[in-house]
Write a structure and sequence with these properties.
Length: 722
Amino acid sequence: MNNNPRYLALDKIQSRDWSLQITGTKASEIFGELVFTKEVMLHYLPEQIVEMIHSHETGQIKRETANIVANAMKTWAISKGATHYTHWFQPLTGLTAEKHDSFFDLENGKPIDKFSGSNLVQQEPDASSFPSGGIRSTFEARGYTAWDVTSPAFIVGTTLCIPSLFISYTGETLDYKTPLLRTIHAIDKAATQVCQLLDKSIESVNVTLGPEQEYFLVDEALYYARPDLVMTGRTLIGAAPARGQQLEDHYFGTIPNRVMNFMMELERECLKLGIPIRTRHNEVAPGQYECAPLFENLNIANDHNLLMMDIMDKVAKKHHLKVLFHEKPFAGVNGSGKHNNWSLSTNTGKNLLSPGRTQRDNLMFLIFLINTIKAIHRNADLLRSSIASASNDHRLGANEAPPAIISVFLGSHLDSILNQLEKASLENIEFVFKSEIKLGIQKMPEIMKDNTDRNRTSPFAFTGNKFEFRAVGASANCAPGMIILNTIVANQLNTFHEEVCQLVDKGTQKEVAILTILKRYITESKNIRFEGNNYSVEWKQEALKRGLNNITQTPKALDAIISPNSIEEFTKLGILSEHELHARHEIRTETYCKKIQIEAKILEELIYQYVLPAAFKYQKLLSDTIQNLISIGFHKDEYQVQLDLLKEINYHTNEIHKNLTAMKLQWQETSTIENLRDKAIHIAEKILPYFEIIRKSSDALENLIPDDMWLLPKYRELLFIK
Ligand code: ADP
Ligand code: MG
């Protein structure tokens, strides 16, 4: 019997059920059945309370009202089999957190089901174990979660989940949801004000998000046979298979049965939770897939994305699969992103980033398009910071990844329209507006459908009626990126409004004032627009000439969070205080250091416990063979193969040992560095390079050592699910 853990795992796969179980479900029959929706509420609550909860008005919810809602929620949840409730929130590391409490209580010794208004409104998890970036010293441990009235409660398993904010008792935010909600409010105010320049019927503006989620699926048994996957989410070593993605046969290819079973069950569970999941397909790399929902209001869409990631994990288990959200689980094939499709929509049902039919619509479209570009031009580094993490560096900036330059792609038609508008002389601007621009824009919808979305290399692309922020990592919460995008666009819209009003006050006609300013913005923000191949070397050089930053590693990318510009952007709108920004910067930097520290430890473990023992075993086999051959009188040239192999293996094992030792010395130095940022930079610059060097030798060994001696599941086994 072979005790090789890899073989044992492969044996397990053979026992799996590979047949397709047709379980497609009619979405309309189950959609939202586990959600405390407005319709359900109307069943259990007086109409005026339901209306109050769903109205745009902000303000406190009275205790009596909370009690009534809590009681209704409890009755509904128990009817669906729930026994517990939890405040479901988004701390600054990890995706979501929950602490379950039972409805069960004793009243005068008698068991009852209890869920009061105060249970609904507030809960106190032990906040001391969540990162706070020095905001709240551990001994205080005073943070609380508070009900987010704008996102409906739902049931997972037997638990009623209440989407919540996470705040310290001193009022600082400890999560992603609170600032996100603030930015949604800020955009609403700023954009509505701008809309009203042209259309008084617009009274509110909502941010919409449709996140496309990429992920890998691997067999569970193989996953557990790889300590690196289990502990870090990615393979730290692993030789490239003969066939990777070079045949380009996976993208949109047939979905394997096992994966299809997983997808169908995932979709069913998502639909029950009111997540409008809609699209599923294979992605570029073998083993890589994508799913996407219909877009929704940002706050809900983000809750739904996080919830979906959770559900994906749970459903995968049932199919003996493991979902990898890591941005680069495998070297040599594509990584995974989460494309954040972002737009703005009005209470009148208008998508502000959709070119319209009338001149007025098109002017409105140009305003929002150009202001967004301008905001990104002014804050490219800030936007870059939002997606910076140890894992996402592999998708932007690292050796195998494209450069980490933020730019905006518009598509050739729109690009040329902005160029025309820029060149139009001020005196002629009225003429331009009436003829050229009008013509150009009116033709746009048809042309754009073909032209857009071709540039898959752009980190921020306009795709017909929305912007697609593609640089977001697959494992990330969408909120950090969306918080920054909303903040900078809201500030930009406020500035724009102010500038237009100043011109109008001086007697300029409104449309002319608008176009005059847009024209200037086009010139000022031109540098950030790029239509070519973002992955090319030429772009790196061109960007350098343009003065655009290419910040390849997280520790430096995070600097933008605490730059004077960032502090101004955030404090002006009251989204985050300087103190909170510093706290967030600290947490992200610390997380970076910890992630790499864990990776380094696991790498060492893999080398000493898996790679070197296999190498030594083979060396023994080779040297025994040589001894035997010598003993029966073979000459050196007759055991040359064995000797060469022995030497080659020896070379690699020595290389590995040498570099691991050097890396350990660097770690010792790291521990003497006080300043967190310096420490992170040291890790990025002095330690990370060893990962690559060590990996190279280890991968060479994998290719040399007999298959039955290699202990870790190989790429071809992990990547090609039948
Ligand atoms: P692709 O980018 O792959 O061509 P789609 O055109 O289907 O894919 O759109 C991708 C995502 O964009 C979907 O989740 C979709 O709901 C979302 N989306 C479409 N319109 C908007 C919008 N106005 N605001 C936000 N997201 C949107
Ligand atoms: Mg897309």
